Amino acid sequence: MIPAPSGPTVRPRRLRATPALRRLVAETRLHPADLVLPVFVREGAAEPVPISSMPGVVQHTTESLKQAVTDAAAAGIGGIMLFGVPEHKDAVGSGATDPDGILNVATRIAVAEAGDALVVQTDLCLDEFTDHGHCGVLDGRGAVDNDATLERYRDMGLAQAEAGSQLLGLSGMMDGQVAAVRDALDGAGHASVPLLGYAAKYASAFYGPFREAVQSSLEGDRRTYQLDPANRREGAREIDLDVSEGADIVMVKPAMSYLDVLADAAASSPVPVWAYQVSGEYAMIEAAAAQGWIDRRRAIEESVLGIRRAGADAVLTYWATELAGWLR
Ligand code: PBG
């Protein structure tokens, strides 16, 4: 007679028994090359300015930017994404298209500093540069004018390409923005400059600390152009649209509350899919860790791993350089 089994025959715990086994069967790995660091550069600043809602993150001076680039390159991360904080803002965001505007100046500095070590990328959106804080220009009734904004994006794209940006991140959520900027670049000898379309960017509360970081004067919200957090299918549609307009990479943003949208995009997109772990996601983990409520390093690693597991090929995160240091 065969003896009755003394317990389960299927035992998933076998492969969890030792660190070496766990490492060998890990399905997802973090690597410095898959991380991108967002960097703020403030015009006219004499010293780096701390951002109170993002402990550990600063508005760089053009001088301290160089060190940030060097540190990022030494850590082996894949790239940096530059945001400009201009001294003067106006209705059309003139600073964005000025070759001597802070973002374009910072781009030239970062490109010179980075060499071949990482990819220097730029945020292509007007909100940092407009006095009303919207991502586009306004019409006579104060609404964001989609097609007039596309004209500004075309010029902004040209200014960024001329400054040497190696990947333009279109984050404004205007309809047709990828096609418009692609057309402008192709017509001006910049056909080889790639575009990152912030395809599925949601109107999120998690951008809160970023508003301090770029000293945004926005009143109201961006719900007429960014996606409704309720909508998953609409995220997939925006991904498809950006791909069809010629996006070389597409983005889902924020990350942690939109992992379903990210998984959909990863399954359907023919181009790389990135995710942006935004300022509020950073602030939440930093704040809880500062209280001693969660283990900071484990929470950071787990959060970025989860975003990768859901399907992101690369992750924009304010911890990029520090996290890469732990991974070495
Ligand atoms: C728009 C832009 C925003 C962020 C990146 N690009 C703000 C917004 O859309 O309101 C937010 C990033 C973050 O919160 O970390 N240029």
Explained architecture:
By secondary structure, the protein is of the alpha/beta class. The protein has one domain: TIM Barrel, CATH 3.20.20.70. The protein has eleven helices and ten strands. It has helices at residues 19-25, 62-75, 102-114, 146-163, 177-186, 208-213, 233-244, 259-268, 279-290, 296-309, 320-327; strands spanning 35-42, 49-50, 58-60, 79-85, 119-124, 167-170, 195-201, 249-253, 273-276, 314-316. Strands 1-4-5-6-7-8-9-10 form an eight-stranded parallel beta barrel, surrounded by eight helices. Helix 2 (62-75) packs parallel to helix 3 (102-114) and helix 4 (146-163) crosses helix 5. Bound molecules: ligand PBG. Catalyzes an early step in the biosynthesis of tetrapyrroles. Binds two molecules of 5-aminolevulinate per subunit, each at a distinct site, and catalyzes their condensation to form porphobilinogen.
Helix-strand blueprint:
Blueprint: H1 19-25, E1 35-42, E2 49-50, E3 58-60, H2 62-75, E4 79-85, H3 102-114, E5 119-124, H4 146-163, E6 167-170, H5 177-186, E7 195-201, H6 208-213, H7 233-244, E8 249-253, H8 259-268, E9 273-276, H9 279-290, H10 296-309, E10 314-316, H11 320-327
Parallel strand pairs: 1-3, 1-4, 1-10, 4-5, 5-6, 6-7, 7-8, 8-9, 9-10
Antiparallel strand pairs: 2-3
Helix pairs in contact: 2-3, 4-5, 7-8
